Every structure is written in C-alpha cells, then in structure tokens.
C-alpha cells in the first residue's frame, strides 16, 4: 500500500510533470472507482493543472480550482505514460481504472491490481469535504508536528501502539509498512500499550517516526513513478522480510498474521528476545 513517503514522492514527481499542462481528457475505465459524480469527470477537460498536493495518503491534482483527488488504497498505483497509448482504453478485466490525458500527449493511468477494488477517485472544488480527508489527524511533516504535539496525541489513547500509529484520524499517512519500520527503529514492541509509554519512550518513538519517514522520502525524491515501489521495498528493514536476518542484530525477523494483514518485527530489538503470540492471544508468549 502506498503510504506517506510514496505519495509524497508522487506529489513531487507530478508537480514537475503536470503543473502548467492542460488536461484534454479524463477517461473512467472502471466506473466503480468514482466516488463523486457532481462535478463530472469531464469538467476537468480544458483546465490547466495549477498544483499537486498531498493529504495523508490522498493525492490531489488541482486543475484551476477543481480537484482530482485519489486514494490508491492497498493495490492502487499511478503509472506515468510518455507518450499515452493511441486510442481510448476499453473496459475489461485488466488493472486500468482511469486515464488522464494531457495536451502534451503524455498523461497517467490509475491502476489497481487484485480482486479487492478499493481505489477511490473524487472530483471536487473542496478536498476538505471528502470524508477521508476531513477526518485526517495531523501530518507528520506539518511544521507544528513536534514532540510535544505527538505526546499529546498519544496521551489520550489506550491501545496497542501499532494500531495507534496506523490510525489516520490520529496521525495522517502512516500505514502497515512504516508503522513496522518506525517501531523497529524505536526498539518497541508493536503490542506495547500507549498508556504504558514513558516520556523516554515517546521521545524515542517520535525520533524514530521522523527519521524513518524523512529517510524514506529522501530516498524516493526525484525518482520516476515507476521506480517508487522498488525503492520502498529495498529500504524496508523488517516489514515484508519474515525469515530474513534483522539488519541491526542478525536475529530472524518474525511475523504476526491478522485476518487481512500481517506485521513483522525483530524479537531481539523489540520484544526482549521473546516471540509475540498469535494476534488472537494478544500477548507475549511466556
């Protein structure tokens, strides 16, 4: 799933490629991705792109005050086309969901792999009116997101820290992968309760959050859209690396599985050498 660093990198890439360019057509291939119908998609045609923004994991293309907003969800992606293929795309069983054409004969496709179709596209004059954006918590890259604000956010929580970091209404932009990476960098169990965090814990966790996300964005900066997925995977230390050695201590990275996701962690770095129990037990093995 694209998270804050990848969406931020896409924002930078699209700013360079789109701003000042005219939109000639927007073609919906999978109608189910459209979550708004007024204004219609065709209202974007003839407008010039004036900016590209990010709201948590949402990507926002501003075309003269009308916004094309997308959430890539778990399996969505943006593919830059230079040049665009000739002819109109046809609806089918492929991954293509939507195509945006520019007056330069370039453009981009929104695609979604797999059977769970969750990619979402909105056209709106006011992105803040989209429910998912309206409920977002503060962005980790906001100027006022300092250690004190982070501590205040966690102070009102009584749950496992992994879930708190992933909650978009608490902190915007962090998902399954980077919450694993942040907790590994902080040497903290994903099952640790927020109510048990000390000032030292919060300080270390805040530092890990900032360095992990900043480092991921810096690695992705300037990369073309097609290279971002590979960059993300290469930069992860524990997430998606079950059975591999931890790059810090050499212990074997372990996994806890959930109904529709999993987390990875290092026992030596994060849980005092003890493997975590199955999620249904929600406790450390004794």
How does the SSE layout of this entry go?
Elements: H1 4-18, E1 23-28, E2 49-55, E3 58-63, E4 66-71, E5 76-81, E6 96-102, E7 107-112, E8 120-124, H2 131-134, H3 147-155, H4 161-166, H5 176-185, H6 199-220, H7 228-235, E9 254-257, E10 262-265, H8 267-270
Antiparallel strand pairs: 1-6, 2-3, 3-4, 4-8, 5-7, 6-7, 9-10
Helix pairs in contact: 1-6, 5-6
Structure description:
The chain has 286 residues and is α+β, with helices and mostly antiparallel strands. The chain is built from 8 helices and 10 strands. The strands form 3 sheets. Strands 1-6-7-5 form a 4-stranded antiparallel sheet, with no helix packed on it. Strands 2-3-4-8 form a 4-stranded antiparallel sheet, covered by helices on one side. A two-stranded antiparallel ribbon has the order 9-10. A hairpin with a 2-residue loop joins strand 2 and strand 3. The longest helix has 22 residues, at 199-220. The protein starts with a helix and ends in a 16-residue tail after the last helix. Mean pLDDT is 92; it is low at 280-286.
Overview features:
4-stranded antiparallel β-sheet, alpha+beta, 286 residues, 20% strand, 8 helices, elongated
Spatial order of strands in the largest sheet: 1-6-7-5
Taking pLDDT < 50 over at least 5 consecutive residues as the criterion, the unreliable ranges are: 280-286
How much of the polypeptide forms β-strand, as a percent range? 15-25%
Bin the helical content.
25-40%
How large is the count of helical segments? Answer: 8
Largest sheet: 4 strands, antiparallel
Order of helices and strands: HEEEEEEEEHHHHHHEEH
Rg calc = 20 Å
């Amino acid at each position: 799933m694209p998270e804050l660093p990848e969406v931020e990198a896409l924002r930078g890439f699209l700013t360079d490629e789109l701003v000042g360019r005219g939109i000639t057509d927007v073609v919906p291939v999978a109608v189910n991705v459209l979550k708004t119908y007024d204004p219609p998609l065709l209202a974007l045609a003839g407008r010039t792109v004036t900016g590209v923004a990010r709201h948590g994991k949402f990507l926002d293309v501003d075309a003269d005050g009308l916004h094309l907003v997308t959430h890539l969800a778990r399996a969505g992606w943006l593919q830059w086309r230079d040049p665009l293929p000739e002819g109109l795309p046809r609806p089918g069983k492929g991954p293509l969901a939507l195509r945006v054409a520019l007056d330069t004969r370039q453009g981009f496709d929104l695609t979604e792999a797999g059977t769970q179709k969750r990619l979402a596209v909105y056209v709106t004059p006011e992105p803040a009116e989209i429910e998912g954006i309206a409920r977002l918590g503060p962005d980790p890259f906001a100027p006022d997101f300092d250690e004190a604000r982070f501590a205040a956010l966690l102070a009102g929580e009584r749950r496992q820290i992994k879930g708190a970091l992933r909650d978009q209404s608490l902190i915007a932009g962090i998902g399954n992968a980077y919450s694993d990476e942040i907790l590994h960098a902080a040497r903290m169990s994903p099952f640790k309760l927020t109510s048990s965090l000390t000032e030292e814990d919060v300080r270390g966790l805040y530092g890990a959050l900032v360095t992990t996300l900043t480092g991921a964005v810096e690695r992705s900066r300037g990369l073309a859209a097609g290279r971002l997925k590979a960059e993300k995977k290469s930069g992860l230390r524990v997430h998606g690396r079950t059975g591999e050695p931890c790059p810090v201590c050499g212990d074997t990275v372990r996994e806890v599985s959930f109904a529709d996701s999993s987390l990875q962690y290092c026992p030596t770095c994060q849980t005092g050498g003890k493997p975590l129990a199955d999620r249904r037990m929600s406790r450390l093995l004794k």
